[in-house]
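Narrative summary of target 7.
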Amino acid sequence: MGYRVVDTETVEPVSDRPCELRRVGSEAGLETVALNRFRAVPGEQVPLTYHYHTEQEEAFYVLSGTLFVETLDGTFEVPTDGLFVADPESPHRAYNPEDASEPVELLALGSPAVSGDAERYEPDEE
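Modeled conformation, tokenized:
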């Protein structure tokens, strides 16, 4: 058996991202689920450019603020305690707009925890 409590504030943020990213899943020893904590101030993207995952299902649970997610079906506004889900092969771009009045904080969950399956999506190429 294995149990642990992880204080996400003690996990070092990942550098070179457009917003604060803490990879709490790897810190907790998770191997089959990716779990990341994000904080984006107004004008920041969460976490990548417009992209899709080839294998991974991805879910964003909003802890505070409002998350905006651009998709091929339009832009979704996800409020506090809301959940946004993207299936594999479904392009999306999550962000906190420039005119937002507060940061947005969220947990992102992905399964399976595969690295390198995020592909850049170029809307103009369709």
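The two ends are 49 Å apart (CA to CA).
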